[in-house]
Amino acid sequence: MEKFKADGGGSKEDSVVERTARHLEELVLEGSLAPGDLLLPERELAIRLSVSRPTLRLAIKIIEDRGLIRSVPEGRIVAPIGRAITDPLMELMSAHGMVVDDYLEFRYTTERMAAELAARRANDVDRAQLKRCIDAIDAAHERGVEQDEADADVDLHIAVYEASHNLVVLHVMRALSGMLRTGIIENRGKLFQRPQTRDALRAQHRAIYEAIERGDAEAAGEAAEAHVRYTHDALREVNAAEARLHVSLRRSRGGRVSTKSFDEKNGSN
Ligand SMILES: [Zn+2]
What we know:
Elements: H1 10-29, H2 42-48, H3 53-65, E1 69-72, E2 75-78, H4 86-95, H5 97-121, H6 124-143, H7 146-164, H8 167-175, H9 177-191, H10 195-213, H11 217-252, H12 262-268
Antiparallel strand pairs: 1-2
Helix pairs in contact: 1-3, 2-3, 4-5, 4-9, 5-7, 5-10, 5-11, 6-7, 6-10, 7-8, 7-9, 10-11
The site of zinc ion has 4 residues, from α7.
């Protein structure tokens, strides 16, 4: 991280303010500061950045005006930027089954690209994070806690986006991560109806992780795309079975508009 010299006066002061503002912006851009993160208290932050508190205040004012930082009762947070697309999409998704298909289709490409880039670009810090995520998946799998495993699943995918060092991939996917979380959890609930699926998903995550770990971009991309395609296919099967069940149930209840009498239905069931 770049350090700043103590600020002087006049035009030099302006440039230190500008540089401090730019530095904070860069932290948001590279994802080190995520939407919703609480900034350090002013005094501590000024020490970290090696600037005076008046300089820091001016710098924060600049990025506040740009909408990147917001004041809250607890202090200052990174504005919830890039999240506005989450809620409408989530509503759309729950209302239209087809959007789930579109979302997963989008992920075939993004996950492949992110995994390929991660295999080429991951550094030691990224690898350590990926390792933590795969260990968390294993631990949750052993414990059999569905929610934990679903969370660890999303965390692994986000770690891959981070390791891709592609800022567009990271921010778009982070913006969608609410959907990813809900999506994966919803899918999980359905997918876990089939016991073989849980083991398959875990093996797929491991394949992605191991290919990135050994720097094999092609294998990482293949594994990532195969994982999303598998999820998509498995989900389609579960949904189809569910739809068939609904039809059968409706039929057995006379579609709730039948002229059959209650007794008659009871008798026939
Ligand atoms: Zn996954």
